[in-house]
Write a structure and sequence with these properties.
Length: about 475
């Protein structure tokens, strides 16, 4: 789906080598923003990439304890985010969140003075763009840094405003971050003043005296599959903050890098040309399997944000810009919804063990099984517990297997966690096994193998489908 939306592009202004984390999937979509709205519910929904430990509070030490990241270079435990983009139905006015993924570019651009490029310091956070902007100032580097590319069959025009034509190859919403740091402050009250754009251009040049430390340049392409939705003119595409002009696009970054590794990449990847595998420090820690298996481990806002069907209004108090219909905003003056765990809870006394292999000659857990479209690890464990089994295994997203012992040559030994990478049918934020792999849970009783329980196995039962 994202082939054209997220294709690597040759940036005309690139004068130096760079690397790209391409087609990077989201870790979560929710109404949280640890920079602008810390320790609270955010004002609008964001599409968030990166570390699984993202929350509404940024502590770099805690973030770097994340289990994993959707970035394939696992020591980059940063988070990158931008407003979710919605399709608005021309007849009902309802909103659907459109599929989204990111290309993230790291660009060493020293400028005419050939300034030394530095890694992001630990604890740095920054914001590019302005959620409240609805006009364009052609002389402002900050405004120039927000662009769009409408992918078409006869050229792909770049604009500073939301495109006003259909984009049959998809849409890229683009943000270029400032690369000059004041050398002192890791943040500022507006989350911008500690950073500045170079003197000559928004995307290259020398740093001003007020911000003398030249950091590596950061550029996002947020690819949105607008081609899968009907285009009906201006107002078809709406940012989560209610903006239809496109000028209110913005993006956030909070640093979770191994700073030494990032500096090594800057210093040694002179011939990278966009390919991470051409950069030895990054290639050595590249793990696409880990990125694919990574799921969000925190809490999200308990509300429908339009991922699975249309919603009548944008989450948060966000009326559509230029729209006089008050129904386009919700939660105005109301208490914000609560935070809830992204993953389902297991029944009391049950714990998750990890990823194990199926049996060599049959099912590892063969006493009882079922499948369900609402499958989660909690659903599976509850099903097995209701039948008095002590072992539960979720597999292939919607299947559940129960037993008291490992069968058919299975020994219950853990395999690499990335081998379980199937999202649960009932919750995309959970993993339910993989190809011939089970996400194993236990009630705490010790598990035996077939040979330990000769003749003690229960009669195998097959439940083709059971709802919990």
């Amino acid at each position: 789906m994202f082939t054209r939306v997220l294709s690597f592009v040759a940036l005309a202004a690139v004068a130096n080598a760079y690397w790209t984390f391409g087609a990077t999937q989201l870790i979560i979509q929710t109404r949280l923003d640890s920079i602008v709205n810390p320790d609270s519910i955010g004002t609008h929904v964001h599409a968030i990439v990166g570390a699984s430990g993202f929350s509404n509070h940024y502590d770099p030490d805690e973030l770097m304890k994340s289990n994993c990241t959707t970035i394939p270079v696992q020591p980059d435990l940063s988070n990158y985010w931008a407003p979710q983009m919605y399709h608005r139905d021309k007849d009902t006015g309802e909103f659907v969140a459109m599929p989204t993924a990111f290309n993230i570019y790291y660009l060493p651009r020293p400028g005419p003075k050939n300034e030394t490029i530095k890694a992001f310091p630990k604890g740095l956070r920054m914001l590019a763009g302005d959620t409240n902007r609805r006009t364009f100032n052609a002389s402002s580097h900050a405004d120039q840094a927000i662009t769009y590319v409408c992918l078409t069959n006869d050229g792909s025009p770049q604009t500073n405003a939301m495109p006003t034509q259909a984009c049959p190859g998809g849409l890229r919403a683009q943000v270029f971050f400032p690369s000059c740091w004041d050398g002192v402050n890791l943040d500022s009250p507006d989350h911008k003043s500690h950073m500045a754009y170079p003197i000559q251009n928004f995307d290259s040049g020398d740093c001003p005296d007020t911000h003398p430390v030249h950091l590596i340049s950061l550029f996002y392409e947020m690819g949105v599959s607008v081609q899968d939705f009907e285009f009906h003119g201006n107002g078809t595409w709406v940012l989560a903050n209610g903006d239809t002009t496109g000028y209110g696009l913005h993006a956030d970054f909070q640093n979770g890098w191994d700073v030494d590794l990032l500096q090594a990449a800057i210093d040694q990847c002179s011939g990278a040309s966009g390919n991470v595998f051409d950069c030895a420090p990054l290639a050595a820690v590249y793990d696409r399997d880990a990125a694919n298996a990574c799921v969000f481990q925190g809490q999200l806002v308990n509300e429908d944000i339009g991922l699975n069907g249309p919603i009548p209004a944008l989450p948060g108090c966000n009326p559509v810009f230029g729209d006089n219909n008050p129904k386009s905003a919700t939660n105005c003056g109301k208490a914000a919804p609560a935070l809830v765990p992204a993953q389902s809870a297991l029944p009391g006394g049950w714990t998750e063990v990890g990823c194990i292999a199926e049996g060599t000659s049959g099912r590892a857990l063969s006493a009882l099984s079922m499948s369900a479209p609402n499958m989660t690890k909690g659903v599976c464990a509850a099903f097995c517990a209701s039948h008095n089994f002590t072992l539960a295994g979720a597999e292939f997203s919607d299947e559940c297997y129960c037993d008291d012992a490992f069968r058919n040559g299975a020994d219950g030994q853990l395999v690499d966690w990335t081998e379980c990478a199937n999202r649960c049918a009932g919750n995309d934020n959970e993993i339910c096994g993989g190809a011939s792999r089970l996400s194993l849970m236990t009630s705490g009783a010790g598990a035996a193998t077939d040979s330990d329980k000769s003749g003690a196995s229960r009669r195998a039962l097959r439940f083709t489908r059971e709802q919990s």
